[in-house]
Amino acid sequence: MNNSSKQFIYRGELSGVSLVFSFRYPETAKYLAAFNLIPESSPSMDPISVSQQEFDDWVAAGNGTDAFAEFCLLCQQTSQHLFSSNRCVFHAAAIRWRDKAWLIAGGSGVGKSTQCRTLLEHWPNEVAIINGDKPVLECRENGSVMAYPSPWNGKEGWHGAEAAPLAGIFFLRRGEKNSVDMISAQTAALRAYLCVFQDFHDANVITQAGAITQRILNSCPSWLLTSQDVPDSTKLLYQTMQEVCENGV
After folding, report:
1. Which terminus of the chain has a lower count of CB atoms within 10 Å, N or C?
2. 33: exposed, middle or buried (Cβ count in 10 Å: 0-12, 13-18, 19+)
3. What's this model's pTM, rounded to 2 decimal places?
4. How far is 63 from 125, CA to CA, in rounded Å?
């Protein structure tokens, strides 16, 4: 593999945490440039890096190996590294509305980007995007959660809004109707757990991810948003945020 013998070490900051990365490809640094990367000659901590096995699995899945591949694979490693500071990378679009963060969570292709695009089209002066695909969530000692931008912001590259306290999570799914239903933390647990980037083969990592998931769900209400079409389902999402802000849960 190209550059396999040489490592390029950089220090950066993500959600207020100092991190050190080790890249095989020098071009990988450009994908994280917005997070104040600087070269590091003598790191004081073990760098976050992609293992040979992870590269091999990536190739076996039909992907190539280059700087962008390394950038993508670093997401999981970074998330796991952040567990020790009660943070994780979470698979969701994070929007900012009325100085609060709201997550639209779900797997790839379920329609998160469509919901964000519709919100921006209908309420352009109200809605901004913290991160379009994978924000960092921080669980704080007072029980609240903060949503931060991250370099992994999706194919649209949506980002720019400042970090904000989390007010609610919408778990998005496709369906034959448009509806939004509040769900308990217990009902939301598996959906949320699968949104936490992690190695599902490591027992210790699984336990840590479970604890973070519980804290995230205990911090705010969750809803199941079923979307048949937009903008009708998006209007339901918006109306729900309005009701929470004006009347509480």
Report:
1. C
2. exposed
3. 0.94
4. 39
